[in-house]
């Protein structure tokens, strides 16, 4: 048993010191930028928007998930700086894994909720029964989502996951085999299924907006970018590490030692890349909440940026005086108002 444990710890040591030193400094930059950014965004949603009243509950939960991720980064930096892929303390290792996977799952879940809400608002505008639109104003729903994520995160506590110790790395028992298989299925399903949902929602929304012949083109383009921003951030942050995880499992099952050392470094590097979502998510807030950028700039940015923002708003208001926000078509003596899809697009 001791030999198995020593083998596990040896495998958790870094295969290349320069690579992991570089990755640790990348996480230092992520933490240095992410901590003040997410704290400032939390301030906006709590004190400026009062998210529980302003239909920003889903966005607020993404900020919370990003903030908890940022808090975990110094521990990862410490490990990489000391030539370890994870902590040698089993309790700390499991706690870190639990936090990282819980926050990742929460971020993905609420991004999907945003996309589904936008999908129903655009593709099924005017239909009754938009459950997502009804439930998104309730903080209770967000609590339920967090609680539902717990059963999917707890398997990371059962058996170490960070060093890919599953399916052959240790002497397997039926218990370990089932646990490891379930964990791997959850890991890949948590990425692949939401990605397919995002692609479907994005394609339907873009198709729906392109068929519109009325409405302000600038707002329609911005609506398209809103749904594309979620898909792009998701694809950039989460898909690469998923592919790397599959490659790592494959080379290890084939017992390719040299290839495994390379695959481990690629996987860890792409996992570090996935932490960048805490820096990219504010771009999504700008697209999904029409007042977020204005509130952030007016609260935290220097005076010259505030003046520039005011000038842009004045220019937009002058343009709006010459362009109608909605188009009316007259049929006989009856006036028919074209549904204002833009209003639904910017209701968060």
Automatic annotation (TrEMBL):
The chain crosses the membrane at residues 23-46, 58-77, 97-120, 141-161, 181-203, 224-248. This is G-protein coupled receptors family 1 profile domain-containing protein. It is found in: Membrane. Residues 37-285 form the G-protein coupled receptors family 1 profile domain. One of its GO terms (molecular function) is G protein-coupled receptor activity. It comes from the Eukaryota. Its main location: membrane. It is a multi-pass membrane protein. InterPro entries: GPCR_Rhodpsn, GPCR_Rhodpsn_7TM, HCARs. Keywords: G-protein coupled receptor, Membrane, Receptor, Transducer, Transmembrane, Transmembrane helix. It holds the Pfam family 7tm_1. PROSITE patterns: G_PROTEIN_RECEP_F1_1, G_PROTEIN_RECEP_F1_2. GO terms for cellular component: membrane. Belongs to the G-protein coupled receptor 1 family. The keyword Membrane applies.
